[in-house]
Design brief:
By secondary structure, the chain is mainly alpha-helical. Helix content is 74%, strand content 0%.
């Protein structure tokens, strides 16, 4: 059914271009708007390919007469390429080239928000190209910082939170020598903490929970001489996230956070003062969290996550058995 609606949309767009009464500029605008419609809620990758085709057609029609519309068509093409599921390095390289072509024109003619959004998306493309050794993570971080000049916490809290989250994740993915590992992780933790100075539980609960959950993850895996202290801080961060996330309204996010909390409990002694006594109580808590998370992931057909949590559940049960035998 969707394909016929999709095809009808494309046909309508083509008919609109053939319409004698519309000016060239109006036709280009129409094409861009229709393409954005496909891009906003794509049901299949075909929708994204249709969007790509319409943006390209708009781009072709611009010639040299409509630089801003031409840049917008390029940004649209880049966004569509970026959204194609399992986009390979070729598509991402094309998206990067499109953003880099559009940005100088946007900087000249567009409003700051439009420029910042393109920089934010360029940062994501660069970050996705790093594993292929086709971009540097520092360039990705630079693009995010450029976007932050516009997306301040006062005016754009949601974008601000996402940008800092992306910056932290970028730091965590930086290849560094073992000696500098703690620097990289420290920068990530710092990025989350900077964002959390302004993103509050009351005003921005969703972004707050995302940042706290990811801060917990960064703390938990800090290469540090204070693992117990970091795990306690991580658990406190997960508890903050769980003030927002629950099994009813946000089941998958909730399952994610409780399985992360279980990971931290797995490695935490019951009594900080007497670590030699082990952690049978925390292991039981971890087991309960893993079970709840496994059930949610399974119900929502998140097969990969269910498998990871299932494996953790086996590990925690083995530890509990070992304690019982002592």
């Amino acid at each position: 059914m969707t394909s016929s609606i999709t095809d009808a949309g494309v046909k309508a767009a083509i008919a609109a271009i053939a319409d004698e009464s519309a000016t060239a500029e109006e036709k280009i605008q129409m094409l861009i708007e229709m393409a954005q419609g496909f891009q906003k809620k794509p049901k299949t990758s075909q929708d994204l390919r249709n969007a790509l085709g319409l943006f390209y057609r708009a781009y072709e029609m611009c010639g040299e007469d409509y630089p801003l519309l031409k840049a917008r068509a390029k940004v649209g093409m880049a966004g569509s390429l970026q959204m194609i599921p399992d986009a390979d390095s070729q598509l991402l390289l094309q998206a990067r080239a499109d953003y880099e072509e559009a940005l100088p024109i946007l900087q000249q003619f567009a409003i700051p928000e439009e420029v910042a959004e393109a920089q934010m998306n360029l940062g994501l493309v660069l970050q996705s190209l790093v594993p292929y050794n086709l971009a540097r993570i520092t360039d990705s971080i630079h693009a995010y910082h450029e976007a932050l000049r516009v997306f301040t916490w006062q005016e754009y809290p949601q974008e601000y939170a996402i940008l800092y989250n992306n910056i932290a994740i970028a730091y965590l993915s930086m290849p560094m020598t073992a000696e500098r590992e703690s620097l990289r992780q420290g920068l990530a933790v710092q990025s989350f903490e900077v964002a959390l100075e302004h993103i509050t539980l009351i005003d921005h609960p969703r972004e707050y929970a995302m940042l706290q959950n990811n801060l917990g993850n960064a703390l938990q895996y800090l290469a540090s001489t204070h693992p117990v202290e970091n795990n306690l801080r991580a658990i406190a961060a997960y508890d903050e996230a769980l003030k927002v996330r629950n099994s009813k309204d946000t089941p998958l996010e909730y399952a994610n956070t409780i399985s992360n909390k279980a990971n931290a409990l797995f490695n935490l002694p019951d009594n900080i003062e007497k670590p030699e006594l082990g952690n049978p109580q925390n292991l039981l808590k971890a087991k309960a969290y893993y079970q709840a998370a496994w059930q949610i992931f399974t119900e929502h057909e998140q097969i990969e996550q269910a498998e990871i949590v299932g494996k953790a559940l086996q590990d925690v049960e083995a530890e509990i058995q070992a304690f019982a035998l002592h």
